[in-house]
Amino acid sequence: MAIIAILGFSFFGLSRISSTIEVAVTNIEWERSIETEAFKLVTEEAWEMPQEGKIIKSFEAIHHYDKRIVGYQTRTRTVQEAVGTEEYVCGKRDLGNGYFEDKYCTRTIYKDRQEQYEEPIYQEFPVYKTKYQYEIYRWKPYKNFDTNGTDKQTNWAELPDFINTDNQKFRVKEKKESYYFAIKDHKNETRWYKANFDYWDNEVFIRKTLKAKKSTIFGYFKQLVDESKVVAIER
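-> structure tokens emitted (235 positions)
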């Protein structure tokens, strides 16, 4: 075991030795998306009638279930009961003259026995409450306007005029953007990364070299020097 531990520690130590290499950027990609919503009339059901809703109907529906005891059934279980005590040797007592004698302790003796008990039988009973069906206007997903590319000419999609002008019926919910790049490592393997816009726009260009680390002893690729600014991803 000691040899295995030493070998493991040695392997770990050797694997930490790194060399700086240069890797070239081979691909860049970007994606942008504008999520829009429309204010639509929808039908919903709820236990409370919203103030803005227009009622269609009300009806009784199961709100929850109450569990009640409806009887008992006799069961048998094993229990332990104390039937006495016994002494056992629990150590040694130093007599002070070079001799020792047994030290005795006492413990309880238990015996298994069967006993009967009454187990309650439960049944679920539905509890009804008034439920409402109504019409109401809600913001719902309308359409995503997406753009993407493999160059640095980033842009947001041009929204239809009615989305920008009719704020009562349409709105932009969220804008999302993602930026990626790929490098070829020293073994000619492609590795993809995701970066924030500032790093991607200012530091990443086709054929530009970036600093990276590889294992000096074992030769495997470790990470980009700027790994804290990017995230390695699977593609």
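The two ends are 41 Å apart (CA to CA).
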